[in-house]
From TrEMBL:
This is Nitroreductase. Keywords: Flavoprotein, FMN, Oxidoreductase. Residues 8-196 form the Nitroreductase domain. The keyword Oxidoreductase applies. CDD domains: PnbA_NfnB-like. Pfam families: Nitroreductase.
Length: 222
C-alpha cells in the first residue's frame, strides 16, 4: 500500500471483528511511528497499549458506568469551542447526520443515538486499543505534535491491513482508564484509539471533504 492509498483509505472505523492483532505488528507500527515529527524532538506522546484481559477489564468497568448512568468525568481540555462558527458548525452537523443515517437512526431518536455512542466504551469490538497521554505542563505546539504522531500511527496501521478509530470520547471516562493503566498524575489523557480488522458488515457512509479551494490558498505567479 503506498502513502496515497493509506491516506485515502484511512477512516474512523466503528466496527471490528474479534481477530487478534499480533503483538509484533503493533510493535512494528509504534516503532516506526516514533519517527513522527515533533518540535525540537520532544516526542511528547506517552502511549499505553491494551489487548486481552486488561482491555476486557477496561471495557467491563466502562460498561458498568454506562449501565449505572454514571456522570461523565470532567474533561481536562476543551474538545470543541462552546460555539462553532461557520463552516465548522455545518461540517460537524453533516458528520452526525451521515453517521446516524447510515445506521438507520432518526435524528430525533435520542435513545438510539445514545446506544450507538455507548459502543465507544466497548472499543467498537476491537481487540486492541491504545491510549495517548501528554504531559499537562506542555503547550499547544506539543499537542499538535501528538496529533501528527497519532496520524502516523493510523497510516502505518493501514499499511498493515488494519483499521483504527481515534476516540477523544475516552476523555470523559479518563478515571476509568486510569484504574487500569495507573498513569502518572502529571499526564493528561488526550484520546484512545481502537485498533483491529474491520467488520465490513457494519454500515457506514464515507464522510466527504471540503473542496481544495475552500481550505487551501495558492500564492504564486502561475
Amino acid at each position: 500500500m503506498d502513502v496515497y492509498e493509506a491516506v485515502t483509505s484511512r477512516r474512523a472505523v466503528r466496527g471490528f471483528i474479534d481477530r487478534p492483532v499480533p503483538r509484533e505488528v503493533l510493535e512494528r507500527v509504534l516503532s516506526a511511528a516514533a519517527w513522527a515529527p515533533s518540535g525540537s524532538n520532544l516526542q511528547p506522546w506517552h502511549v499505553y497499549v491494551l489487548t486481552g484481559r486488561p482491555l476486557g477489564e477496561l471495557k467491563e468497568l466502562a460498561d458498568r458506568r454506562v449501565t449505572a448512568c454514571d456522570p461523565w468525568d470532567e474533561r481536562e481540555y476543551e474538545m470543541y469551542p462552546p460555539t462553532l462558527k461557520s463552516p465548522y458548525r455545518e461540517r460537524r452537523s453533516a458528520f452526525g447526520a451521515e453517521r446516524y443515517s447510515a445506521l438507520g437512526i432518526a435524528h430525533e431518536d435520542w435513545e438510539a443515538r445514545q446506544r450507538t455512542a455507548s459502543a465507544n466504551w466497548k472499543c467498537f469490538g476491537a481487540p486492541a486499543a491504545l491510549f495517548c497521554y501528554i504531559d499537562r505542563g506542555l503547550g499547544r505546539p506539543q499537542w499538535s505534535d501528538v496529533g501528527m504522531y497519532l496520524q502516523t500511527v493510523m497510516l502505518l496501521l493501514r499499511a498493515e491491513g488494519l483499521h483504527s478509530c481515534p476516540q477523544m470520547a475516552w476523555s470523559v471516562y479518563r478515571k476509568t482508564v486510569a484504574e487500569v493503566l495507573s498513569p502518572p498524575d502529571d499526564l493528561v489523557l488526550f484520546c484512545g484509539m481502537s485498533i483491529g480488522f474491520e467488520d465490513i458488515a457494519v454500515p457506514y457512509i464515507r464522510t466527504g471533504r471540503a473542496l481544495l479551494d475552500e481550505t487551501v490558498t495558492f500564492v504564486d505567479d502561475y
